[in-house]
Amino acid sequence: MCGRYTISTDPAQLAARFNAAPAAQAATPRFNAAPTQQLPVVLDADRSLQLLRWGLIPHWAEDASIGNKMINARAETIAQKPSFREAFRKRRCLVLADGYYEWQKTAGGKQPMRFVLNDEGPFAFAGLWETWRHGDDLIRSFTIITTSANATTAPVHDRMPVILLPEHEQRWLDPSTDPVELHEMLLPYPDEEMRFYPVSKSINSPSNEGAGLIAPINSL
Q1: Which residues are catalytic?
Q2: Which residues contact 146 (CB under 8 A, 6 or more apart)?
Q3: Cβ(92)–Cβ(106) under 8 Å?
Q4: DSSP category for residue 219
Q5: Which tops the pLDDT comparison, 129 or 19?
Q6: Which residues contact 46 (CB under 8 A, 6 or more apart)?
Q7: Is 202 helix (H, G, I), strand (E, B) or coil?
Q8: Rg (CA), the chain
């Protein structure tokens, strides 16, 4: 699963990378992005950059708390699961990131690792989004799609978030894209283009923030 990630890239660089208008509300860097937080996503083929809550709340849900259990959606079942299948057809998004965390079992306990692309640049997770209304409440939320691990990530976790290839991003957003083509995008990212390193256990608490959280440590 993917339960914590980073999006700390300069807003202007982020807007240029994803061909999206800069959003002032998305300028705050996140070194420990966690479920229920408002985080930057690109919602549609027009490249609208907005903040949505992490943890998808289906439009039919009685209670918003269900979103706490829906931070991830498995690529293998999103077309069948009632919570995700309509969003997979109609409401796909790019979840902007520049790294993510997983925890590796070691003799000293679970060690957090930060996964990045080799150039440490920003990338997009494949995401789904929904609008939930209940009385006067309106929440827009998203989930991150996961797939099987590649050779780089497998020693730490058997799943990884789907990182879209740049050439797939526009087609992922396009509402006319055939579902067969969509499924073909939901593959492990090329392992030779990724790396990871250990970071402080301070990221275990979502209340901790700051650039120091992504600094490599020599713990292994």
Answers
A1: 2, 102
A2: 1, 2, 72, 73, 74, 75, 159, 160, 161, 162
A3: no
A4: -
A5: 129
A6: none
A7: helix
A8: 17
Cα torsion angle, 131, 134, 136, 142, sign: negative
Angstrom distances, CA of residue 78 to CA of 54, 73, 96, 181: 17, 6, 20, 14
**What is residue 87's predicted lDDT score, i.e. its pLDDT?**
95
Give me the helices (H) in 73-154, please.
Answer: 85-90
Q: How many other β-carbons are positioned within 10 Å of the β-carbon of residue 207?
A: 7
At 40, which CATH number? 3.90.1680.10
Q: Is residue 219 part of a domain?
A: no
Structure letter (DSSP) for residue 205: S
Question: Which pLDDT band, with edges at 50, 70 and 90, does 25 fall under?
Answer: low
Residue 220 lies in a domain: no
Give the separation between CA 148 and CA 210, rounded to whole angstroms. Answer: 30
Number of domains in the chain: 1
Helix, strand, or coil here: 8?
A: coil
Q: Write down the residue that tokens 């957090």 correspond to.
A: 112
Taking the C-alpha atoms of residue 26 and residue 148, their distance in angstroms, rounded to an integer, is: 30
How deeply is 77 buried, as exposed, middle or buried, from its count of CB atoms within 10 A (0-12, 13-18, 19+)? exposed
58-98, pLDDT tens digit by residue? 999 988 999 999 999 999 999 999 999 999 999 999 999 99
The size of the chain, in residues, is: 220
In whole angstroms, what separates CA 157 from the centre of its chain? Answer: 16
Domain membership of residue 104 as a residue range: 5-214
**10: CB partners within 8 A, 6+ apart:** none
Would you say residue 19 lies in a domain?
yes
The verdict on residue 83 lying in a domain is yes
